[in-house]
Amino acid sequence: MKDRLLFRKKRIAGFLAVLCLFLMAGCASRQKAGEGGDAKLPVIGVSINSLRSPFMIALAQGIREGGEEEDVELILSDCNGDIQTQASQIRDFVTRGVNGILIEPLDEQALIQAVGEARKSGIPVYCVDTTVRSEDITCTVGSDSVVMGQSAARYMAELLYERYGEYRGRVVNLLASVNTTSGRDRSRGFHQVIDQYPDIEVVSEQNGALQLDTATNTMINILQANPGIDAVWCSGDTNAQGALQAMRRLGLLHTREEDGHIILVSADGAAESLQAIREGLMDACISQNPLEMGRMAVRLMKAEIAEGKEPNLKIMTYPLFVITADTIDTENHVRYGIWSEEIP
Amino acid sequence: MRKKHLFRQYVPALAMLLILTVVFAAGSPQFLTVRNLSNILMQTAPMCILAIGLTFVVLCGHLDLSGGAVIAMVSVISGVLLKANVPVPAVFLLAILLGAGIGFLNGFCVALLGMSSFILTIATQIMVRGGAMAISGGRTLYGLPEAFLLPGMGTLFRIPVPVLLLLILFPVMELVLRRTVFGYQVIAVGEDRRGAQMAGVNSPLVQIECFTLAGVFYALAGIILTGQLGAVVASCGEGMEMTALSCIAIGGISLSGGRGNLVGTFLGCLIIGFLGSGINMLNLSPYYTNVIRGMVIFGALLMEAGRILLQKHREGEYDV
C-alpha cells in the first residue's frame, strides 16, 4: 500500500519536472527570437584571454575604452587559455543574439566551426591580434607579425655587422607559439630576412610558448647545447624574460657594454622589456600598441553594426614601433603610444 | 629473490632511460656532461618534488590533480606576502601551511565525505588556479627578496639547493614508505581500503595524511619553482601534475594504488627530464615536441604493460 503511494508520488514529481523543462525551453527560445540588444545600444560579445600577460591586459583595456567611446555594450568573457571555453563563449554569444562578436583566438584552426555558426546567424565576427583561418571572419585588426619578424631580423643583422664587421653570427629563434598565426608569422618573417645572410646561422629553433617556465627551461637547454650564441629572437616579452632568467642562471648575462653580451630582440613592448632596454640587457623590442588595436577593433565593428559600413580590408594592420636604447625616450615613441605606461 | 623482484619492476623505465641516453648523447656532445645532468635535475626538481607527494596519494589509492594549481597559489600568495614585507622565514612557513591546508581539504572531502578524488581534485585545481589568477591579476611579480629565491637558485657545498633537496628527499621518503608504520599503512589502504580498516588501520586518517603530505610537497615545489623563475607568475606549474602522473605510471607504480615506490617515480621523472633536455639540445622540431613526448611515454607504458602480462603469466612465482 505504502509502495503504491510512493510510486504515484514519484510519477507526479517526474511529470512536473518534465513539464518545467518544457516551459523553460519555451522561455529560452522566445528570448532568442526577441533579443538583439537594445535598439539604441549595440551589443558586442568579446572573448579574449585577458589575464595572461600585460599585452592582453592592455588589449582588454583598449577594447573596453573603445566600447565606452563608441557607446557600445560589451560582454567581456575571459576564456582563460582554454580553447573549448572560447568556442562555447562564441556559441553563447550566438544564442544571446549579440550584434557582433570580437575574438582574440587562441588557435587559428580550432574555432572555424564556431565562427561559421556565428556567421550563419548573421552575426559579423572580427578578430584582434591574431586571426582564424576562415572566410567567415569579416576583419582582423592586428599587427603584421611577418613584418615584426622581418624587422627583428633586420635589426639583429645590423647589430651583428657592428660586432663582427660582416653579416655573420650564431642566432636562436625562440618561438612564441606553434599553433597561432601570429606565432608562426613572427618566425616566418624572421626567417625571410635572416636566411638571406649565408653566414648568419640559426643554430636552434624551439618553442618558448610565451610562458615563463617553458621559455626559461628551453633557453637553458639551448644555451647549454650551443656555446657561443650571439643573438636571440625572443618573439615576445615573456620569452624574453625567460631568456634573461636563463642567462642569469648560467652566468651568461652581460650588458651591451660588457663582453659576451648576447643580443636580445623582443616583441610587444611590456614594461619589463622597456626596463631591460634601459638597463642595457636587451637591445630592441618591436612594440605593438594593443590599446589602440582594441579601440580600433571596436570602432570598426560599430561602423558595420550601426551604419553597415564594412571595412575595406580583411586585415587592418596596425603599425609597429622598434624600441631601442636610442628611440625609447623620443617624441616618436610617445606619439606611437607607450602602452605599458597606460595600464595599471 | 626479493632483489630480482624489485629489479624487474624497474626494467621498462631503465630500458627507456637507456634508449634516451644513447640517442641524445649521440646527437649532442654536451648531453652527457655533469653540467647538463645537473641542469636536468634542476629543471625537473619542482616536478620531482610534486611527484613525491603525488606518489603517496596514488599509493593510498587516489588521484590528485591539484598539484600545479597549489604551486601557482603558493607562488602568488608568497609574492603578496613578500611585497607586504613579511619576513622570508615566515613566508616559507605560511607557504607550507597553505599547501598542507589545501591538501587537508582534498583529503577530508575524499576520505570523510566520500567524494571521488579524481573529480574533487579537478574542482580544487580549477578553484585554486582561478584564485591565483584573480589575486595576481595576470601580472608577473618581479623583484623578490634574494633570501626567498635561495631554495630555487642557491648552492650549498657547490651543489644547487634543488638538487640537494632531491638527493635528500627521495631516500628519506622512500625509507618512510618502506620502514615506517605509516608507510605500510599507506600501501595497505591502497591495496584494500576496507580490508585495511578491518585489520585496524584508520583508513580515512591515512588518506587524509597522504593528501596533506602531498600538499606540503606541492608547496615546497612552488617555492623552488618561484626561486628558479625569479618571479611570481600565476600560470606556472600548469600541467605539471599530469606530467608527474605520467612519470609515476612509467615508473611502474599502479595508478589504482597499493603497489610501487619512489624509486620508480624517480626513474620516471628522469625520463621526462632527459626528454625535455634532449629535444631542445638536439634541436628537434618544435612542432613535433609533444608528439615525441607522447610517443616516449606511450613506449614506456607499453613496456610496462608487457612486463605485467609476463608477470601474470608466471603467476604464483612472485609476490604481486
Blueprint (SSEs and pairs):
The complex is a heterodimer of chains A (344) and B (320).
Chain A: H1 2-34, E1 43-48, H2 54-70, E2 73-78, H3 83-96, E3 100-103, H4 112-120, E4 125-128, E5 137-143, H5 145-164, E6 169-175, H6 181-194, E7 200-207, H7 212-225, E8 231-233, H8 237-249, E9 263-268, H9 271-278, E10 284-287, H10 290-307, E11 315-318, E12 321-324, H11 331-336
Parallel strand pairs in A: 1-2, 1-3, 3-4, 4-5, 5-11, 6-7, 6-8, 8-9, 9-10
Antiparallel strand pairs in A: 10-12
Chain B: H1 2-27, H2 34-59, H3 67-83, H4 88-111, H5 117-136, H6 146-153, E1 155-156, E2 159-160, H7 161-179, H8 181-191, H9 193-198, H10 203-229, H11 240-250, H12 262-281, H13 289-313
Antiparallel strand pairs in B: 1-2
Helix pairs in contact in B: 1-12, 1-13, 2-7, 2-10, 2-11, 2-12, 3-4, 3-5, 3-10, 4-5, 4-10, 6-10, 7-8, 8-10, 11-12, 11-13, 12-13
Describe the model:
The complex is a heterodimer of chains A (344) and B (320). Chain A is α/β, with parallel strands linked by helices and 344 residues long. Chain A has 2 domains: 43-143 and 289-318, Rossmann fold, CATH 3.40.50; 145-280, Rossmann fold (3-Layer(aba) Sandwich), CATH 3.40.50.2300. In chain A, 48% of the residues lie in helices and 18% in strands. Chain A has 11 helices and 12 strands. Chain A has helices spanning 2-34, 54-70, 83-96, 112-120, 145-164, 181-194, 212-225, 237-249, 271-278, 290-307, 331-336, and strands at 43-48, 73-78, 100-103, 125-128, 137-143, 169-175, 200-207, 231-233, 263-268, 284-287, 315-318, 321-324. A 6-stranded parallel beta sheet of chain A has the order 2-1-3-4-5-11, with helices on both faces. Chain A has a 6-stranded mixed beta sheet with strand order 7-6-8-9-10-12, with helices on both faces. In chain A, strand 3, helix 4 (112-120) and strand 4 form a beta-alpha-beta unit. Chain B is mainly α and 320 residues long. Chain B has one domain: ABC transporter involved in vitamin B12 uptake, BtuC, CATH 1.10.3470. Chain B is built from 13 helices and 2 strands, in the order ααααααββααααααα. Chain B has a two-stranded antiparallel sheet. In chain B, a hairpin with a 2-residue loop joins strand 1 (155-156) and strand 2 (159-160). In chain B, helix 2 (34-59) crosses helix 12, helix 4 packs antiparallel against helix 10 and helix 7 packs across helix 8. The A-B interface holds A 50-54, 56-57, 80-81, 175, 178, 203-207, 211-213, 216-218, 220-222, 224-225, 238, 241, 245, 248-249, 272 and B 28, 30-31, 35-36, 39, 43, 130, 133-134, 137-140, 142, 153, 225, 228-231, 233-238, 276-277, 279-283, 286-287, 289.
